[in-house]
Amino acid sequence: MIADIVFGFLGSGKTTVIANILREWGQDEKIVVLVNEFGEVGIDGELLASQGAETVEMPAGCICCTLQVDFRRQMLEISETINPQRVIIEPTGVAQITQIMYIVNAELFQDRIEEVHNILITDATNFMDFYKRNRHFVESQVGNAQVVLLNKCDRIKKIKAEVIKEAILAINPQVPVILTEFGAVDWEEYKSALSAAPYLSAAYEAETASPTEEVEEMGFIHIHEDEDTLGYESFGCTYELSFEQQELEKLFQDLLNSNLLGDEIVRAKGIFRVDNKWVVGQLASGEVSWQEVKSAQKSKISIIGRNLKKELIGTAVNRCLAGMSG
After folding, report:
1. In CATH, which superfamily holds the domain spanning 2-223?
2. How far is it, in rounded angstroms, from Cα 242 to Cα 239?
């Protein structure tokens, strides 16, 4: 099978890109998506499943460190019981690609995985600011990418997109950089970039990653940032009841514009039952968006940021429940 690792920071558009891949190739290929989310509550996997994708969810941990053994076991199970032509791996937004490559390149998978593609999704609206604040992390991710999709280019000027592209190429001169809007690509260009991308072995990645910590754990080399990765934490909860749309919109605006509920809230996403419909609310890249979806199992929300005031967040979410706003 082919393994596509679609990675990138929180809110860069990974799930949107994967949804586009499923629409383009899902009819011709048997595809499984393995979703690893930063927070306790899994949302991306359910959104992809609602579009008909076969998904495996691994929330509440990182497959590049705390969930290494579970990740290896899930990959084996996918290979043996489902045997897809392609597995798309969506790690958390703070995962180290080097660690994931060690696992998929392990001897255990040599006869199971025929190709591995490292596909980095970057957010054009905040790439340079994020790079300044997290230089090592960004250089490690870009340096180990085989293809980079510079996403959300519709929200910046073309000249700025070219500047960002040059900054990416300064880190990794060989990597193809494709400018995208809403995670949509020219599929011929995309396939050509994948076929032309240089193969990166796990050994090569380890040499170029400049890890801050390297210890042997569970039979793998563990390469990661500090234990709390980039200093982010999460709030997540599920609900059986319905919500008020107007109150939810107020909540997401508060998350966007106020520090009352936490510092630097970089990502918020939720699936909510509102009256007789289901809606998805998202906060990413300084914008809030809403859309309807066909169905979901339960209402749920996940918020990621620094110094989250979880008790206040829980109270604020509860105020959005139907009948509670008054």
Report:
1. P-loop containing nucleotide triphosphate hydrolases (3.40.50.300)
2. 8
Output the DSSP codes for 178-208: EE-BTTB--HHHHHHHHHHSPP--HHHHHHH
Residue 254 burial (C-beta neighbours within 10 Å; 0-12, 13-18, 19+): middle
pTM > 0.90: yes or no? no
109 in helix, strand or coil?
Answer: helix
Domain definitions of the chain by residue range: 2-223, 233-318
Q: How far apart are CA 288 and CA 266, in angstroms?
A: 11
Amino acid letter, residue 114: E
The bridge status of strand 263-274 relative to strand 147-151 is unpaired
Q: What angle do CA 259, 265, 267 make, to 5 degrees?
A: 150
Please state, in angstroms and rounded to a whole number, the distance separating the CA atoms of residues 57 and 44. 9
- Homologous superfamily of the 233-318 domain (CATH): CobW-like, C-terminal domain (3.30.1220.10)
Question: For 5-23, how does the pLDDT look when each residue is reduced to its tens digit (9 = 90+)?
Answer: 999 998 899 999 999 999 9
Comparing CA positions, the residue from 38, 49, 31 lying closest to residue 12 is: 38
